[in-house]
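Many introductory courses stop at the sequence. We go one step further.
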Amino acid sequence: MKRVLLLAALIAWSGMAGAVVYKWLDAQGKVQYGDRPPNGVHAEVVEGLGAHASSSAQARPSDAAPAAPRMTANQNQPKVDDAAAKKAMDEDVAQTRDKQCTEARERYRKLIEGRRIYKTGDNGERQYLSSEEIDSQRLDAKRDIDSTCNSST
């Protein structure tokens, strides 16, 4: 019985050891972690339990010697790399925010122009919204536009 439990524990642990964890910034600039990063977002592999040396070395080549900066003729090179990485991150955040803004505006437009608005039920049937539900959805959509499109950060 002990051998069966030990075997089950080893199998479960081996599944976790093969997992890869990614780290990325969301549209609000908060750090997020997960096993699959969203499309169009620059993500880094997190060193830890699931990260294998070969996959993390390919994903983050600059981590080979974090304590000693690269010695080049131009000592400002690491700062330039950081600035370029920050600029790329800012561009990714801006692209994500633009996409979310476009989606929020499209949702609001559909709620304003739609005549009979429905949502799909669990078994696929249409459930038509009442006037109060539509108004509530419109207010939520307008708030989404205000928070996503008009935010300066």
